[in-house]
Design brief:
This protein is mainly α and 148 residues long. The chain is built from 8 helices and no strands. It has helices spanning 2-10, 21-38, 44-58, 62-74, 83-92, 95-110, 117-129, 134-147. Helix 2 runs antiparallel to helix 3 (44-58).
Amino acid sequence: MLDLIKQLFSGEERHQEPPTGHQIAVAATALMVQLARVDSNQDDRELETIVECAVRAHEVTEEEARDILQDALDHADDATSLYEFTGKLNEHLEQSDKQRLLESIWAVALADGRIDRYEEHLIRRIADLLHLNHREYMQARHRAEDAQ
């Protein structure tokens, strides 16, 4: 697991095998961790939401989701850009899957009861990097707000 996190954070490419669902979960979780840290106020509610989203979206157990989250937290400072995660996700996710991911990212931002301007800006950047248009961005936000 640690090697996978290091590979994702370093941007290394091994061979062109499609990533497993677990690897997609790691990349998605890494984006959510970046969001949770952007306002310098990492909240336990945000971290719990990340775990819940991983379990729901990536068919991993809660224990696996917590392990992925911990690895992502441990290596969050090593990430050089969001593109190292969004690039992998763009290659292997359908547009509808990317919209659901953005909805999960919004859920993390909403978990502490407020949207910080830095969070909103980062979500916009993530949406752009995932090639989601403004309508898809807003739909994801509204679905996340309605789910709260």
